[in-house]
Amino acid sequence: MSCDTQFVHLAWKHAEGELADVTFKMGSDANGKLARMFGVYLEDAGVALRGTFLIAPDGAVMNSEINQLNLGRNIDELMRRFKANLYLMKKKDEGCPSKWKAEGDATLKPSAKMVGKVHEALRK
Fold this sequence. Notes:
Elements: H1 6-15, H2 33-37, E1 41-42, E2 47-48, E3 50-55, E4 61-67, H3 75-90, H4 118-123
Antiparallel strand pairs: 1-2, 3-4
């Protein structure tokens, strides 16, 4: 989803090699309504910051990241966070550390006993 029109999306798809294999639909928010709802629209510039939002099926925002206009996003990190959020929906008493990648990787059980001992817990 971006504030570009569907015609700009089409031009990008045809001209930009990085988008050549994109199979998902791109949505246009040409009037910036959605960007304003998510707090990423820059009124003075008439553009939106690069916002990434992971939204649960119930509509709750599970994760958000807002980058400046000149900073790209990393799909591997986005997918890591997506998988972690799905995992944590099932395991609400656990926490996924920054290097967690997939089910079976070490998780943490947040508690007062864990304070100052995360490094040790992840080395077990």
